[in-house]
Amino acid sequence: MKLQTGTISHLDFILSQEARKEFSRFILSWSRDKHLQNLQDPDKHYLIIKTDLDVGIEAIAGYTILSGLQSPHRNIELTRIVIAEPGKGFGKTALKLIQKRVFEEYQAHRLWLDVFEDNQRARWVYESVGFKQEGLLREAVRREESYDSLVIMSILEQEYFSRLV
After folding, report:
1. CATH number at residue 44
2. How many structural domains compose the chain?
3. Between the CA of residue 74 and those of 22, 67, 108, what are the distances in Å?
4. Domain residues for 120?
């Protein structure tokens, strides 16, 4: 598995994943224009998650969006991660690659995210790669006729590097 910089050419894949009914409960989809704007923003980075299907053949397994690359506080947000085929271990592997990029290449101090409180599967995966729960944004997002809470999670650079030993 590897990460590749996302470009406008990947936008149809990104939009198709955000439009999937089974993901609608956990992903707040953006318009094409919002993605185009974000792709041009130097504070954001889109990464395409690729996996090997066979010798020399790669397939797109998902994508991620990182924000805060220009933060003077060295805090980067994992704004979004979407795995096209959940349950195959791609998410956990991708998160490890993302952490490696964020802490070793971007030299961040902290990688953080928010996740819907009822997304137990994602929360378990985040915890399995070292993220810790920091807090709860109570009823922070309105979806349909209800308000949902977001769990804030993060991993610090020293926690990441201690896991490598």
Report:
1. 3.40.630.30
2. 1
3. 34, 11, 5
4. 2-164
